[in-house]
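During the reporting period, our protein records have gained a structure token line. One record among many is quoted in full directly below:
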Amino acid sequence: MNRFWLVNYPKGVPADVDWTRYSSLVQLLEEAFAAYRQRNAYVCLGKTLTFGQIDEMSRAFAAWLQARGLAKGDRVAIMLPNLLQYPVALAGVLRAGLTVVNVNPLYTPRELEHQLADCGARAIVILENFIAPMQPVIAGSPVQHVVVCGVLDLLAPGKPTGPDAALPDTIRFNAMIEEGARLPYQPVPLTGEDVAFLQYTGGTTGVSKGATLVHRNVIANVLQSEAWMQPALTNPKKGPPPEQLNFVCALPLYHIFGMTVCCLLGMRVGGFNILIPNPRDLPALVKEIRPYKVHLFPAVNTLYNALAHNEEFCTLDWSGLRVSNAGGMAVQRAVAERWLKVTGCPICEGYGLSETSPSATCNPTDTDEYNGTIGLPMPSTEIEILDDGGKPVALGERGEIAIRGPQVMVGYWQHPEETAKVMTSDGFFKSGDIGIMDERGYVRIVDRKKDMILVSGFNVYPNEVEDVIADCPGVLECAAVGVPDRNSGEAVKVFVVRRDQALTEHDVMAYARQHLTGYKRPKVVEFRQELPKTNVGKILRRELRDEELRKI
């Protein structure tokens, strides 16, 4: 394929990365442990862990798992928020030759039951707070070994953190590490084609499925992300590159964005991750990051928006910030402009999915303005825009975004029929997102297929409506969905969270009349205190749409 967009790459970014330099993620991690042994790697609630400590504890965990009879390819679920135990668990599972299954700790019992049954996990690492409601689910699942974590485990070793669960072979995290440290660890031969992660999709378009990511997929994406951020790190306007990069890890580590961009990339470059267990607690977040000069701040639009309007956050020193990398949902112009004003660092919007480990495209990190696109294809990545028949459309025309590259999953776990629906015969993954590629190679998201609103035969894309309404004075957040309409088939309804309580429906409608053509204007405006969101802050239009359908 003619990757014509390469001429628009920033200086110093390669066309390709060599993911074959590592046989597995274990080799990548162990190289980092050796090179940065004395450096601090993570901090959470005031407690730090060095790379050397992560090395020792993850080795102990790997030995403990092997002693329990878990063998290469077995799955281990990790159901933790952003705590120090997470990187230990992740590295330990991989070093034992096993597969990590990330689990959202906010899952309901029904959701956990589905995921454990689907992946067949033999062990789970779980926060004690979630044990009680999950006991029946775990007891009825394939799980045979349970490691229970307490928030204070690594903050105050030896301090009791609650009763053990009444489950077979249950052990506290600290006791497991002590036991594992006395056991022999046997390195497991791994290749790039061995399964590293089952990363379950959010389920926003149906039943949650496990994207099967092999070691090669994630190694490639870590190296792609590292190469892509170099122009920002070497920008002479910001001074020399920092000796150690400080990441704000407010993204959940169990989510593919946080896991790859913070956890794994952070360890690969010897970075320091400031773990934020609850990013919705803005005062706590500000308190955690205040002592540090932050260099990288990956986040989603909703978090950028909330922080940019937080008075305490705006008083912090942002002179060291090099990269504000956004993904997960569309960045709105109003948010991008506010963030730039507060921090002096433009939001660099990218795009990816669980199925692509995740990054597929990104705007250059030396950009200085918001452009409304998701950027250029990453190194070693090809993008095609396909019509409904699966054929490429002309530049500038709408179609489904399809991705080919070393970061693309090998398929959905035990769902060959679902894999066949999304993979083309020549290896492109069909994302389900509608986009346009321009003559420079920049891609702009139009919307997800299922979110499109059909008004009297005209396509209305919610992103466009939301981008306009978000700019309306007094609006904090908004979401647009289609609702049944007797005359036009569907009409646009907008849900709005006010920043200014004086804002009225008339104000929103008047602003829409100024900036949207007739069929795109909202017919109904509903004010809410908050909008439903996924674990990473992506607004769930589906939930809003389902609410409307239930009213009929």
Observations:
- The chain has a mean pLDDT of 94.
- Residues 255 and 460 are 30 Å apart (CA to CA).
- The longest strand covers residues 475-485.
